[in-house]
Amino acid sequence: MCFRFFFFFFQVASGSKLVSGSMRKNPTLICVPIMGESVDKMVVDMGKANASGADLVEIRLDGLKNFNPRENIKTLIKESPVPTLFTYRPIWEGGQYDGDENKRVDVLRLAMELGADYIDVELQVAREFNDSVRGKKPEKCKVIVSSHNYQYTPSVEDLSNLVARIQASGADIVKFATTALDITDVARVFQITVHSQVPIIGLVMGERGLISRILCAKFGGFLTFGTLENGIVSAPGQPTIKDLLDLYNFRQMGPDTKVFGIIGKPVGHSKSPILYNEAFKSVGFNGVFVHLLVDDIAKFFQTYSSNDFAGFSCTIPHKEAAVKCCDEVDTVAKSIGAVNCIIRRQSDGKLFGYNTDYVGAISAIEDGLRGRLNVSGGVSSALAGKLFVVIGAGGAGKALAYGAKAKGARVVIANRTYDRARELAETVGGHALSLADLENFNPEDGMILANTTSIGMQPKVDETPIPKHALGHYALVFDAVYTPKITRLLREAEESGATIVSGLEMFIGQAYEQYERFTGLPAPKELFQKTMAKY
Ligand SMILES: *[C@@H]1O[C@H](CO)[C@@H](O)[C@H](O)[C@H]1NC(C)=O
Ligand SMILES: *[C@@H]1O[C@H](CO)[C@@H](O)[C@H](O)[C@H]1NC(C)=O
Ligand SMILES: *[C@@H]1O[C@H](CO)[C@@H](O)[C@H](O)[C@H]1NC(C)=O
Ligand SMILES: *[C@@H]1O[C@H](CO)[C@@H](O)[C@H](O)[C@H]1NC(C)=O
Ligand SMILES: *[C@@H]1O[C@H](CO)[C@@H](O)[C@H](O)[C@H]1NC(C)=O
């Protein structure tokens, strides 16, 4: 897909409320929906919206109790520190108003006459509305004609027809919102947005549509919505204005900003966007890092095939399937059969897959051992010759076993299903153990233990793959998870005198590697440590 870019500068037509544009790399506005039940509450929220950096507010009249149109609208316009958009959404378009249609449209006309900067008119009534205004529209008021689809996202052709219909109905600004059943639905909306000859708002509702609300700044959307608080939204999937500005660096996005993201399902909990965006910002790297809730990774890569989508982290459950999506994978990823980092080469668009999980984990473990032995540097790994026990033969277990072996450790795999353990042990060249035998496994002291199973995960927090009394034989115990930072296993290991390394160090370690591949720049290690310490 080729994203050609047509740029529209469309000023906020509101005299003294002109948005100052010095720091911005895009003209896309951020609108905060205001949905109070009382005018007083709305006025308070408009103040908060302004303080948060909003360009305008959308006043949702359909949520007001005891609505007195002329008086209330006057007050709202007078009290708003930023330009106003008035919306009076009927039930038949997903809003709350269920009264007389003529009265509703009268209220919108009134808002226009009283000095609203924008009004939102639904496509179904737009022509009628235009006729009723009969050319008496105040110069400064712009009409947004909107259409909502709460079921799905139509084809590009159908969307183009919709946009043409909206345009022909007398719209100054075209708005359509559809529903994402799959993240690839959003690509069609970007395509329409990029090619639009009129100011356009194209948003896709739902968690799978989140990127439409962030990347519209790159693709030339007229505005996006950012809420004041988490979860208090006027449409499903809206981010907060704080996230748009601070997390995604919304104002710094431009047509040439590269998109990076973490592919997973679920993915909303991932801290990667915080980590990478903060680092991008610190060096002025022209990229944005987003959550990508992906159901079908092959379809994702077929759809987002342009160079704009430049690099990806990949997590559960897609690490194995990701291998097939890449044109080439490195030898480690190939042997493990899992990829956690994908780079699109900008010269030819080819996808390269890597596995940096193991690098992060292994170097965190090496650091832990060096700290314990008080040796620095050295040519050989601190793991060389050590007995390395991995619990679990899944993706993470495989990566660790492979990585430890490559560093010269003697590897033992313990799995509840002995056959699984044996299979992996044969592949990497190690020994197998059933989980039941782990308790009495103590050929020597100073061993290393790595837990990669879900035993002890919420809600079964009282389970453990190895009893505490058996931990005394281990010099170092590692856990692959970073929430919670200290698991039961790590707590008991520490009490038994072992050095502990948590998944947080592994997460940061693999992030260094990925960052360098994403940007071609050295990772800001201290910033990574500092950012993660906050969460
Ligand atoms: C709006 O926000 C700006 C920037 O934070 C601030 O300087 C200004 O005083 C605010 N205006 C009002 C009316 O609160
Ligand atoms: C809207 O109204 C104006 C003035 O009455 C008219 O010139 C224009 O053609 C109308 N537009 C549409 C799409 O009906
Ligand atoms: C570790 O090394 C540092 C100097 O590099 C030294 O000051 C410290 O005493 C050593 N600790 C142990 C336990 O040997
Ligand atoms: C055993 O290995 C399988 C993968 O082959 C993995 O899914 C499972 O979590 C492991 N279980 C235990 C208890 O080691
Ligand atoms: C073992 O590791 C998993 C994550 O891989 C973690 O959820 C679990 O809590 C750990 N088990 C214990 C007993 O700490």
From TrEMBL:
Domain spans labelled SDH C-terminal: 503-531
SUPFAM superfamilies for the chain: Aldolase, Aminoacid dehydrogenase-like, N-terminal domain, NAD(P)-binding Rossmann-fold domains
Superkingdom assignment: Eukaryota
Keywords: Signal
Record flagged with keyword rRNA-binding: no
One Pfam family from the record: Shikimate_dh_N
Residues of the signal peptide: 1-15
GO molecular function: 3-dehydroquinate dehydratase activity; shikimate 3-dehydrogenase (NADP+) activity
Domain Quinate/shikimate 5-dehydrogenase/glutamyl-tRNA reductase: 382-452
Span of domain Shikimate dehydrogenase substrate binding N-terminal: 262-342
Gene Ontology biological process terms, A to Z: chorismate biosynthetic process; shikimate metabolic process
NCBIfam families: aroD
Protein name per its UniProtKB record: Shikimate dehydrogenase
Source species: Citrus x changshan-huyou
